[in-house]
Amino acid sequence: MSIILSTLNARYTHASLGLRYLLANMGDLRGKTQLVEFVIGTKTTEIVEQLLAKHPKIIGFGVYIWNVEETERVVAMLKRVAPQIKIILGGPEVSYESAEQSIVQLADYLITGWGEVTLPQLCKQILNGPQPLMKTHVGVQPPLNDLALPYSLYTDEDIAHRTLYVEASRGCPFKCEFCLSALDKTAWPFDLDVFLAEMETLYQRGARLFKFVDRTFNLNIKSSLKIMQFFLDKIAAYPDDPVFAHFEVVPDHLPEALKAGISQFPAGALQFEIGIQSFNPEVQALVSRKQNNEKAADNISWLIEHSHAHLHVDLIAGLPGEDMASFGRGFDQLYALRPHEIQFGILKRLRGTPIIRHTSDFGMVYDPYPPYTILANGLIDFANMQRLVRFSRYWDLVANSGRFANTLPVLLGDAPFARFMAFSDWLYANTDATHRIALDRLAKMVGEWLVLHSLSELAAAELIASDYAGKSKRGKSGATPQRQAMHLPA
Ligand code: SF4
């Protein structure tokens, strides 16, 4: 095999859409190209051995924030044991600020931006000469309809066991400064009929779980409706064979036609990831995020009351201009809307993102190592930032997990952020752990906390037991992923 396209995925269940796009667009080199995926945490020697066993002349790596450190070790080892193999890097992590990156220095070639057109051109030059003169190649961005779609490259095993990522559009017209999509000038749609024909084939092959990576699914309502109708038709035709679709939506744009479509989905079939990030208008202005907070809140309430969509809403802590009190107010405001999950993220300075302009004015201090998480800023010091990091982790374990559905409202009372922060501080002081807390121990700790805060031992035990009883009635249901199924009515 002359060419290997490889990446280290964050999990086995994540099948790389980017690699499949590259393979689909290799043209007459496609027969000589093989896709080889790994999972982070695999031993470097194991990865290198598997790659070398295929005797490639070229290896292209997809480099992302989650795999850059491990990929660098792989590239460094390859360069020692098989220096004749040409290494090409691509992907968002190496597309910006690349000159200063040690992984780029180790590699032979770099493609920044889109790779589908430029990678086969570069490989042809390497294989047939004349050898490329430049190390860095700016990826050509073709019209989307010129790209070969990658969906037939999902294997039967991918369909059976992995999340299928799909995209009906690329790019985003908004300019939120913490986000890599802020660098896109607009959003580009794929030909919708061609795309839906591919979805039909995937469906016929057995795919039931579709994760759309479009940055803003509800930008073009006509397209959104057509895509939703595709799934509604499947649900109507095969009501006993459930399907699950995940979309990222902007919260302040939910016209009536879209609401009418959304409300037809049964429970466990639809998930929306909704970015709020901050409810503070000054912070939003600082990071160039345009959001009508009132409309956004109304729409989230509408979705909760009138649809079965599972809502996963994002907030970011550590943004410039946001102190603990402001973040806490935003958190409480969001919690009051009762989304199923609040994804509480900590700001990361992604390479190339414009948020860097605030670094000195707002005292933004970022970890120099991936994922470049904020460590402190002028309003939140390091110690408090760590408290927020733990809050986020414990929130995931206790609230987002859906395991304490009856207990959570009692734990949070009328001051969700303040009370959960106090619980989080106490839990950390008494366990010294953030990641591995067995469920039984966690339940015991939640019970202890409630007793310390005026619940009788009997009442606390009954409350916790009611959640365990509830849990036993839930679980995996059809195509609904287990975590989302935990939020379905028992
Ligand atoms: S955060 Fe969302 S809306 Fe803002 S630029 Fe990124 S993808 Fe677009």
Automatic annotation (TrEMBL):
Residues 471-490 are annotated as: Disordered. Residues 1-133 form the B12-binding domain. It comes from the Bacteria. Residues 158-392 form the Radical SAM core domain. Keywords: Iron, Iron-sulfur, Metal-binding, S-adenosyl-L-methionine. Gene3D superfamilies: Cobalamin-binding domain (3.40.50.280), tm_1862 like domain (3.80.30.20). The keyword S-adenosyl-L-methionine applies. One of its GO terms (cellular component) is cytosol. Pfam families: B12-binding, DUF4080, Radical_SAM. GO terms for molecular function: catalytic activity; cobalamin binding; iron-sulfur cluster binding; metal ion binding. Its cofactor is [4Fe-4S] cluster. The keyword Endoplasmic reticulum does not apply. PANTHER family: ANAEROBIC MAGNESIUM-PROTOPORPHYRIN IX MONOMETHYL ESTER CYCLASE-RELATED, SLR0320 PROTEIN. This is B12-binding domain-containing radical SAM protein. It comes from Iodobacter fluviatilis.
